[in-house]
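Q: Joint fold for the lines below.
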Amino acid sequence: MPWWRKPGQPMKYRFAGPACLALIAIIGGAGFGAAAEFKPALVYDLGGKFDKSFNEGAFRGAEKFRLETGIAAREFEIQNDAQREQALRRFARDGQTPVIAVGFSHSSALEKVARDFPGAQFAIVDTVVSAPNVQSIVFREHEGSYLVGMLAAMASKTAKIGFVGGMDIPLIRKFACGYRQGARAADPRIEIIENMTGTTGAAWSDPVKGGELARSQIDRGADVIYQAAGGTGIGVLRAAADAGKLGIGTDSNQNGLFPGRVLTSMLKRVDAAVYKGFSDARAGNWQAGTAALGLKEEGIGWALDDDNRALITPAMKAAADQAARDIISGKTAVHDYMSDGKCPPAGAPGG
Amino acid sequence: MSGPPAVWQAAGPVLAPLAVALAAISIIVAAAGENPAAALRTLAAGSLGSREGLAMTLFYTTDFIFAGLAVSVAFRAGLFNIGVEGQAMAAGIGIALAALYAGALPGALALPALALAGAAGGALWALVPAWLQARRGSHIVITTIMFNFIAGALLGFLLNGPLGAPGSMQPESPAFPAAAAMPRLDDALRAMGMTPTDTPLNLCLPLALAAAFAAHVLFERTRLGYEMAVLGASPPAAAYAGISPARIMMLAMILSGILGSGLALNELTGAQNRLILEFTGGYGFVGIAIALTGRNRPAGIVLAALLFGALYQGGAELAFERPKITRDMIVLVQGLIVLMAGCFGARARSGEA
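A: Joint structure:
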């Protein structure tokens, strides 16, 4: 079964791939120059291309594709909400395809533009847009959060760990819920202190407040703090490092930001998703539908490198690896907050 | 009025900073390793040279006319209203409440009702700082800035709770009913069998121009406009002449809030068709620069709004076409124009006195 399809999903667009290939072959036969032209595009979210986190992951994926194929994606960083639709439409009209919209905020704009350009291929990261020419790429962040929750509980000496989220939205509660389940699985009596930074977009870029929240959690006894807060998270990691405690990074590998003071990073491979999206489209394997990337698809993981090797004991690594295998095999079920808007009152380990 | 016509008097302070800004753009573009002449061509062609570009420019212009007028009407009365952003947010809340809860209104009544609800929201948000200034002497610069934060927090609370669309990750309201959509230029083009421009340009543009004309009449031809000007020039003189400063302040701020609500109307009923978090996009602050560039005259404000609209749209086009030019460079250029407008505007004002 291909990676983009959830088990059990109907093979609705079974013929789209071969049809695309056939089309490319026909065009290729007609004129080599036209077929060789592959024109991908990326539209970043308000955070901007170099946000050290989510958008930058997308950029790295496009960069990897460029280095391998020599094809540079056209890209646009939006400045205001009116530009979402304008940018997508503009790229579609210029014949760019596929166009990847980075971030769930593009969903309403993409719904309209995808309808108007049925011949173009679109993709959106972090949310689902149902249209025959849109590929939705979502991540099972709860699985990775479960693993780093286990590691946090095992690394904690105070049996108290913290979580600092960015904007209070279901996506971030999903992180918190997975983290809670993992921590409880490793230590049923662990205490978890959770804070969200805010309720507006500003909560993604407020490292000062992130640092304050982390310090208050440390004052209450937490000695490992997981951040899922975009740019705010840098403040969380810094506060933990300054206090001699441990932080946990998100999205990109942030172990190297404060070597020896970042326990690990929950990796969300936006880069891999963008790279794969471009590569598949180029090879004619592009498919509409929803791709949910988790541990199994290596879209989610946790970072182990020279910066944190000393912090992860062999027992911790063994436990996390075993849990990862159990999640992949289905033996351990990690509850997804977004499936029902609830986080189970954990106490009993999941599975 | 002596001298050249008002439009040309107004054009001077717009054209001078434009010339300086274009020079600045050329230097920045050259430093980034692009050809300045080609970049300027892209800027011009992208903002004015195509139907789509021009329509998008005029869409931004609509926002900027409303924002600039809102700042200038308060400024006439000597009040520095930094709160257009917050007043537009409050107007947006009013519009959304009307659109979502009074959806039963028949089509022809829906849009005027939304505009009224927006105007009420904007006026209410301007009224509190105005009252505090008039009665308590609380400085309006401080209070209007603070009210921006309060409006932002209120908007965030509403969209994450009572007004939020159920099941959506976005802090946004459900989509407005169809009757709440402002007629767009594209609707007219389609009706005439022409290709649509795919831009949100809508009926708010003529509304903005009408507002500018009304402001001109207010400033130049009415007793209230005169009283505002006297108060703005010299509060003691106004008091001596029997003008009530409190009354004029409140009226000026109410008008300012109503004008600011046009920004929300354009963005929400014209483009987004739902209430979203950052729909004001900082345009309320840009309004200060527009009022300054336009020397607080409606004709000047329309021209300055067109200039900024063209820069916003042309800037986006630059980012599309020339990968080496990033969005930060465009913000830098916009900042330079504001700075230049400030310099030239200050010179013009001291020359006037």
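Q: Anything notable?
A: Chain B has one domain: 6-352. The two ends of chain B are 16 Å apart (CA to CA).
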